[in-house]
Amino acid sequence: MNILVTGGCGFIGSNFITYILKNRKEAKVINIDKLTYAGNLANLSDVIREYAPSKYQFIKGDICDKQIVEDIFKESDIDWVVNFAAESHVDRSIDEPAEFLQTNILGTFTLLEAARKFWLDPASYITKKRFLHISTDEVYGSLDDIGYFTETTPYNPSSPYSASKAASDHLVYAYWRTYSIPTIITNSSNNYGPYQFPEKLIPLIINNAIKGKRLPVYGDGKNVRDWLHVEDNCSAILAALKRGLPGQKYNIGANCEKRNIDIVNMICDYLDKKLGLINGKPRRELIDYVSDRLGHDRRYAIDASKIINELHWQPSVNFERGIIETIDWYLQNTAWVEDIETGKYLEY
Ligand SMILES: NC(=O)c1ccc[n+]([C@@H]2O[C@H](COP(=O)([O-])OP(=O)(O)OC[C@H]3O[C@@H](n4cnc5c(N)ncnc54)[C@H](O)[C@@H]3O)[C@@H](O)[C@H]2O)c1
User: Fold this and answer.
1) Beta bridge partners of 56
2) Among residues 306, 297, 324, which one has the least CA distance to residue 252?
3) Any catalytic annotation for residue 137?
4) How far apart are the first and last CA of the chain?
5) What Rg value do the Cα atoms of the chain yield, rounded?
6) For the chain, which terminus, N or C, has the lower number of CB atoms within 10 Å?
7) Which domains does the chain have, with CATH numbers?
8) Rounded distance between C-alpha atoms, residue 74 and residue 62, angstroms
9) How confident is the prediction for the chain on average, in pLDDT?
10) Percent of the chain scored above 90 by pLDDT?
11) Is 138 a catalytic residue?
12) What's the CA gap between 233 and 254, in Å, rounded?
């Protein structure tokens, strides 16, 4: 079972590689990652120790590079592709969209073309080959106070990031309809957990609050996200690979809507209890409301009943437990954060 994972040195990709190697004894993972600012080899140091080289191989490369991608398909008989590689930060996409279009759309296209070239049997889905594209609920746009995203909600992306993910989703589906490439798409809600790059809301707030730095919160802080522990996303992705049907998409979420400000308060209160106050003051006083993000979506909420009913998947991490474990992870891994802050991780 040869699994090509793209973007495996990022947050979700590295958690997934660890998860699949633990849970599928027959799996061999080939990880292609360009090592952008978001890729960190340290995320996989345990995997390298335990599984390289027989069950884990790393290739530094760009998914837009046709030659490298074709060489991988030529040299290894790839059974599953799991495409995590992407530019993933909405704020960066607002400042500099070009790289988002390049990696998220053209990179996905390059991978699809390789699958079309090397998965010769037009009915290769019968042989259990799978091209699983990892996507986001942000493709659906913003919700008002009521309602949920289902798999049939029309796409209505707001940011260059979500627009580029939407474009790649359309391409992935088109390769199923047109060429019978056995593609599947998962659209998950916001993930949290260990190894998330500290520019994203939860790790940013945790790390700033640990150090007593200001805690920037967009707008009125009442934007709602639907939180999913990364390990639950990994189990859902594996369920989609094993039992998902080609041409289908599956929403993944844990029915866990929270306002940003409530999460920030939760982190402040836990750290106050665990580490004591900052200069005699509660960390909530570090909250700094800043101008809202351009085009900021108000609310996301996932209806995950399709994957629950059809693939028998269930989330297992309760948010109150998951957030505390995540805060504790960042407290125990200050060297990991420091290497990112000083840029040392780029030299590994
Ligand atoms: N983080 C979330 O909450 C979330 C939610 C839903 C969907 N997603 C999707 O999940 C995937 C992974 O997200 P993440 O948060 O782990 O992202 P991340 O930014 O932490 O990691 C992305 C990884 O992709 C690599 N990469 C970037 N461009 C590349 C290229 N051209 N070629 C090869 N590798 C490249 C980076 O080096 C990095 O290791 C993305 O596709 C994202 O859209 C993320």
Assistant:
1) 29
2) 306
3) yes
4) 29
5) 20
6) C
7) 2-194+230-254+299-319 (3.40.50.720)
8) 17
9) 97
10) 97
11) yes
12) 9
Per-residue pLDDT tens digits for 308-331: 999 999 999 999 999 999 999 999
The pLDDT value recorded for residue 126 is: 67
Query: pLDDT digits over 5-27, tens only?
Result: 999 999 999 999 999 999 999 99
Q: What is the pLDDT of residue 121?
A: 72
Using a pLDDT cut of 70, give the percent of the chain over it.
99
DSSP E strand stretches across the chain: 2-6, 28-33, 56-60, 78-83, 130-136, 183-188, 191-192, 215-218, 224-226, 228-229, 249-252, 257-259, 287-290
Q: Measured from the CA of 85, which atom of ligand 1 is nearest? A: 24
Cβ 184 vs Cβ 131: under 8 Å: yes
What is the pLDDT at residue 128?
Answer: 86
Q: Which residues of 230-269 are buried (b: 16+ CB within 10 A; e: fewer)?
A: bbbbbbbbbbbbeebebbbbbbbbbbbbbebbebbbbbbe
Q: For residue 215, is pLDDT > 70?
A: yes
Q: Which of the residues 51, 161, 270, 300 is marked catalytic? A: 161
User: Catalytic residue among 137, 226, 232, 257, which?
Assistant: 137
Closest Cα to residue 130, out of 32, 241, 259? 241
User: Residues with beta carbon inside 6 Å of ligand 1?
Assistant: 6-7, 9-13, 32-36, 38-39, 62-64, 84-88, 103, 107, 134, 136, 165, 188, 190-191, 197
Tokens of 316: 């297992």
Whole-Å CA distances, 74 to 6, 63, 114, 160, 293: 16, 15, 9, 34, 44
